[in-house]
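Duplicate of earlier report; Phenylalanine--tRNA ligase beta subunit input re-posted below.
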Amino acid sequence: MKVSYQWLQEYLDIDVKPADLAEKIARTSVDINDVYSPSDGLKKLVVGYVESTTPHPDSDHLTLCQVNTGEDTVQIVCGAPNVVAGKKVIVALPGARIGNNIKIKRSKMRGELSEGMLCALQEIGFSENIAPKAYDEGIWFLPDDAKPGESVFPYLGMDDTIIDTDITPNRGDMFSMLGNVNDIAAFYDLKSHFKVQKVNENSSQLTSDLVAVNIADTQLAPTYKMRVIQDIQVKESPLWLQIRLWNAGIRPISNVVDVTNYILLKYGQPLHSFDYAKLPAKQIGVRFAKHEEPFVTLDEDERQLDSQDIVVTAGDKPVALAGTMGGLETAISNDTTSVALEAAIFDPILVRKQARRHDLHSESSTRFERGVNPETVETALNEAAQMIAELGGGAVTKGIVTGSERDLITPTIVLSLSRINHVLGTTLYVEEVVDIFDRLGFTTAIDGEQITVTVPARRWDVNIEADLLEEIARIYGYDNLPSTLPEQSSNIGALTERQQLIRTSRHVLEGLGLNQAISYSLTTTEKATQFQVEPHSNPMQLDYPMSQDHVAARMSLISGLLTDVAYNVARKQKDVQLYEQGRIFVTHPDQKRPEEQEHLAGVLTGELLTDNWHQTEHHVDFYDAKGIVERYLTNMALQQKISFVANHERKEMHPGRTADIYIGETLAGFIGQIHPQVAKDYKIPETYVFELNLELILAAAKKSRHYQLISKYPAISRDIALLLDEGTTNDEILAAINKKGGAHLVNVHLFDVYEGAHLPANKKSLAYTLTYQDSQGTLTEDQVNESFDKVVDYLTDQFNVEIR
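Output:
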């Protein structure tokens, strides 16, 4: 809520700097978004008097204005269609700064000198949503008593300071000037001068003869009251009222509508005004809407209502979306002569859901959602009726028509002084505690050290002992509470084995050149089902998503990483290597809640290493991604065999460059290039990805890790080139060599692959280097030859290879 400091000063004798007050509110009550003055950044804006106007000799829409700026009369060229002589206007003098930090200079417009600018409200920083519509196409006219040459800021309320508070859900009472006055008076120990205007029922007509209210379901509207104001004239509100509204971020419309918004700000009580003559019937009720019942709201949108929406009806016809927005058909217009004024409390949960359902978050719905003070419903209705009558020259009919009224709930809570001092660590006396409650407006009864507190209905957030302890602490001052060191245990903190392995996973991938990314766990339904390690049913979807892009829980990490790649590529970052460790949400038909699994995924595009004087550029390929995964799995020291099996069935992946990853016989993930069409959809270049089910890796049996000394004895190598069938894989050959290589075989390296000319059809050549080494002594030529021959014989028998 935007709280006016000048308005606060009408009710409190407060003499602290607005910035200091805001800091105190932030420490004591609610958060602060901003503290600012509407005049910030503006200068040299003064009152001007238009003495005469003449058409521009070389333009059909410009006017030459002779403007008295206090010390002198200057000529200003103006293009506003409503500029006339005899009006006080906003003048930006040469050198002035107006909205958007625009500097005004002395200049010529089509050959005529212009020494300044006549301004509209929008041009001096007012939002289009706040400036009155009547002046949309022209400049603003100041009051007739404004003195030329004086600053315009006091006349427009721009010399005020606005404290923009961020109200937490439990402090709905702070959504009003009354709530802010009560709280500020309590923690500064001030006396409130809050003024309540009484109603003068100066019409002889009874309200009950004009309108009837019947609330069949009081759960929908626990309180509902109405008044009628007759013989009014709808017109522009006085400037003081418009200033109150636009400083609070509300656009002035007319005296009737502006009064309801003013009372909303003052008391936190939303009101709604109906054109009495336009009501289709004079019997008012509240009910659930019918499914797909049409209704046109004040913003001129026709909405299809839901059966859980609540509507105010006249007869049985909806005339307002209760607590959210009125209907266009019964709206106040310039022809309105009688007003039916509503003050009510509606079910907060239903109002919140319908506001979200229709994307209609109004000032009224915001307050109904957080709660409305039941003590001031009638007070607000009376004051609004009186103000409408005064500003519109009308008369208030006798009596209030009440359809429902909830009893005030004033909880009584008992607490002891010893309990207060024990929890807060203080040494307060009973008199000090009672003084705090008196400042808050809570009633107390004392019995020795026992204090019985009766909480007023306006503080519906205070219900239990802990709430009262919090009130004492914040009014006494959190800074005044004694500081104590927390008790410490002798236990030494440490990570669990699971936490250690997860942290190790991140360290390994970062060491391999990948950067960590964190993506949203909510995405679109389509993206949520992509890139699953194992196919599952539909993803978990939210009933009330925050946006169309966040409707379902992810079932893979890759789609989020591809979105990150697209973001970077769109900003000319071509080399992107990312990983993410996080949870996915797998649904099962027989379970209400999804299974949460920890996964690890990576994405690579562009170049891992940039080209330089000794290295040419190398774009990421399948083997770079595979090498990263192999190194990671090697570091995790899994006992079971790791294997990569080609898979042509994953629809989001390239059919010829994709492999499933198995731990033993269990599918643990996949690796490969994303399908070119999918890459096109994401607007990214050729990209390689992998995803692993980290739960399987964490649960898998691990090898015991031992250090091995580096052998001081020389190694001996043997090269072998094999001519074999095209279908035989490198993995099969490596397994065979390691099986028969003997105890001294320490490394097998594939250094050449050849296919093509000079080889028989359907054949290929693979060349390997086998390295032998003993940690206990020097190997002899015979030992190496014996081991090597066993490998050759085994390969010949098993694969029918030819040694080249």
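The CA atoms of residues 197 and 383 lie 5 Å apart.

Merging into the original ticket.
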